[in-house]
Amino acid sequence: MGDEGSSVRMAERLLKFVSIDAQMPNKREVAKRTGDFHEIYAEFITQKANEQASRCSQCGVPFCQTGCPLQNNIPDWLKMTAEGRLEEAYALSSATNSMPEICGRICPQDRLCEGACVIEQSGHGAVTIGAVERYITETAWDQGWITPITPPRELAEHVGIVGAGPAGLAAAEALRNKGYQVTIYDRYDRAGGLLIYGIPSFKLEKVVVSRRIEHLKASGVTFVQNYEVGRNGTLADLRAAHDCVLIAIGVYKARPLPCPGSDGEGVVEALDYLTASNKTGLGDYIPAFESGALNAQGKRVVVIGGGDTAMDCVRTAIRQGAAKVTCLYRRDRANMPGSAREVSNAQDEGVVFEWLAAPKAVHATSKGVTGVLATRMRLGEADSTGRQASEELVGGEFDVPADLVIKALGYDPEPVQTLFDEPALKVSRWGTIRADAITGETSVQNVFAAGDIVRGASLVVWAIKDGREAAEHMHQAMRKQARQLGEAAQYAAQRDVTLKPASF
């Protein structure tokens, strides 16, 4: 009878996907949100978060969980949220995710957990997992449930992490939880990597990132800013200072635009453009922004690319007051690599999309860029990635007027062997660091790598996963070494006693 009563109570709180429609948090009106860089989604109120969590079907095979790179225990913390057990929900959510409030904001849930949701496949609309995840963690911050890390015991080993992006931060948290002494080295003046300088504030307010950084500092993690490997030190220097080193520097080398005029004045890299915008928003004085070189105000802007970075650029240009913003993408909307939700938001905000269009040349005069010569494309046979290749249509050329062209074609690794002054650090043919697929250890002993510098440009959630896994294997390696040193010392002590002459 007890089990029956429990089942009835669960049914009262859950399985409401038939009677309650899917609903995202309220979105700010277009006219208001395009006038500033604040986040466009409001927070769920408690009633709505509980209500949306109650739509979970608690299916036997949780495809939402398998669709999440971190394997987050989504059905369980949705159940806890529906039942009002928010502190438990946060404890479970944070057990597998180092920064759930960030993933809840910027993960492309429509391609991951929500896209795999069973009730989404049944036509009832996915549970709004990302919004609930964000609500749980924001509640945890507000209620003071998130406190500095206090490891069970402090360990003597020191770990050096190169890169303060999501992979490095996730690894630092995991290692600090185990008691290791952790120092993060980063080339920028603020920690956070792309979270702070690459992703616009309308998707991720910078206070959310800085709050997580301050949490790590309060937990005993040391940050060394403005430290660039190759200028301030080498890999050998870091290995000498630490028992283990993790390389988590990401990929920052912009892919070129292979057409005439692509390097002229008025043609800029996406990351340069976004960084200037974010730094200006943080109160920094950026000459290239003030001069207009990296500012879209009053300009006709053309963004080339179809990923999330391209969406960040077009939506940033709208907020800077561009006269017109056009996105050129060589495939159709269904084949865009970026989040479908971000594309919809961009369209709502007035971005013009030229699907199946690719640049052939950038036109300019002595005064700067005047336009992009583009051509119509069609989708042909699948390429090596399984996606349909785009092919140029004969006679499909057309002009797109432009005063600013932004290249958002993705990123490749920097030359890490030269950067770290370490020829023994093996790289792949794509320039990414070769690391063991399971442990993350590189060709250099006690040096590990994680995130985009290993897998190539990818999502923040994958970087978090990689950082956490690398931290676990670094822990295992250091404990093994400690045991071996202990055994060697014990053997030496025993041998010393055995060899001493007996005294009479």
Automatic annotation (TrEMBL):
Assigned keywords, A-Z: 4Fe-4S, Iron, Iron-sulfur, Metal-binding, Oxidoreductase
Coiled-coil regions listed in the entry: none
A Pfam family this chain is assigned to: Fer4_20
Domain Dihydroprymidine dehydrogenase, residue spans: 34-144
Domain FAD/NAD(P)-binding intervals: 159-467
Signal peptide limits: none
Annotated InterPro entries: DPD_II (IPR028261), FAD/NAD-bd_sf (IPR036188), FAD/NAD-binding_dom (IPR023753), GltD-like (IPR006006), Helical_ferredxn (IPR009051)
Highest taxon of the lineage: Bacteria
Source organism (scientific name): Candidatus Phycosocius spiralis
The keyword Oxidoreductase is assigned to this record: yes
Entry keyword annotation includes Ribonucleoprotein: no
Protein name according to UniProt: Oxidoreductase
